[in-house]
Structure formats: C-alpha cells, structure tokens
Design goal:
By secondary structure, this protein is an alpha+beta fold. It has 2 domains: 28 residues; 96 residues, Nuclear Transport Factor 2, Chain: A, CATH 3.10.450. Helices cover 30% and strands 46% of the residues. A 5-stranded antiparallel beta sheet has the order 1-2-3-4-5. The radius of gyration is 20 Å and the shape is elongated. It starts with a helix and ends with a strand. Bound molecules: 2-acetamido-2-deoxy-beta-D-glucopyranose (NAG) (3 copies). The site of one 2-acetamido-2-deoxy-beta-D-glucopyranose has 2 residues, from strand 2. This is Cystatin domain-containing protein. One of its GO terms (cellular component) is extracellular space. Belongs to the cystatin family. GO terms for molecular function: cysteine-type endopeptidase inhibitor activity. InterPro entries: Cystatin_dom, Cystatin_sf, Prot_inh_cystat_CS.
C-alpha cells in the first residue's frame, strides 16, 4: 500500500517534471502525432512522394494531394511515419489518366548526418 502510493507519487512527479517539454523528453521512443503544418513534416512528405515516383514509374507525374496522417518518433534520429494521398497522372495515347493512391511511407532522418532513408511500405489505389 505504502509502496503503491510512493510509486504513484513518483510517476506523477516524473510526469509533472517532463510535461511541457518537447516530445523527446515526454515519451522517448513513442510515436506522437506530427504537426502537419511543420515545414519539415511537409518537406519529408514531398521526399516520400519523390521516392514513390522513383520506385514505381518515372514516367508518371506524382503529386502530393494530402497528408492524411503523420507521426514522429525518436529513434536514433527522427522517424516520420506518413499516410499520404498521392495523385498519379499518366499520359496514355493522348489520354490523361489519373489515379489516387493511399501510401504508407516511413522517412528516417538524422539531420546532423544528412542521412535520410525512405521506405515505401505500401501504396493502394483508392477508388472514390
Ligand atoms: C505547427 O507548425 C506551424 C508551422 O511551423 C506553427 O506555426 C504552429 O504553431 C505549430 N502548431 C503546433 C500546435 O505546434
Ligand atoms: C494517425 O496514426 C496514428 C498511429 O497509427 C493513430 O494512432 C492515429 O489515430 C491516426 N490519426 C488519424 C487522424 O488518423
Ligand atoms: C534504408 O532502409 C532500407 C530498409 O529499411 C535498407 O534496406 C537500406 O539499406 C537502407 N539504406 C540506407 C542508406 O541505410
């Protein structure tokens, strides 16, 4: 009983000490929702689209329509996890073909080392 209260008190104290600090201190290693307006979050989303283009079809035009969701996680650098709506446009025999894909991409960066590793986990065509 005494132990429980003490443990609870310690947890509360630690929480109070670290709340209000940046995510690195709040929950090291846990993914937290990213600020979608953050220029870096947007930049890496664009890099993700460039990688999707590189890995799929160089001839198509790819356009980032929307960042559906993004989380950031501190893992020896920062891991951005994205759900993106990517608009793909192809010209085929004079026709313009458009396709919407929901892509799941990880961008792992270590800014101080200029390291960036992009993993395209999936891209699924959206019919709507
Ligand atoms: C999100 O990022 C934008 C642009 O940097 C900034 O103006 C805004 O205050 C941020 N919002 C939060 C909740 O941090
Ligand atoms: C964003 O992704 C995280 C982690 O997968 C999830 O917990 C959260 O609910 C998602 N938010 C939205 C708005 O989809
Ligand atoms: C990037 O990550 C992929 C898969 O996680 C790995 O195969 C590849 O070697 C990595 N590239 C670099 C430069 O670390």
């Amino acid at each position: 009983m005494g132990f429980t209260h003490q443990a609870l008190f310690t947890v509360l104290l630690v929480f109070m000490l670290f709340s209000g600090h940046t995510y690195t201190e709040e929950c090291a290693g846990c993914p937290i929702p990213a600020n979608l307006s953050d220029p870096m979050v947007q930049k890496y989303a664009q890099d993700a689209v460039a990688e999707i283009k590189k890995e799929t079809n160089h001839m198509s035009l790819y356009y980032l329509e929307e960042i559906i969701n993004a989380t950031v996680q501190v893992v020896a650098g920062i891991l951005y996890h994205y759900e993106l709506i990517v608009l793909r446009t192809d010209l085929y025999e004079g026709l313009i073909l458009r396709e919407k894909d929901l892509c799941n991409v990880d961008v792992w960066v270590k800014e101080w080392e200029d390291f960036e590793n992009i993993t395209v986990n999936s891209c699924e065509r959206q019919f709507n």
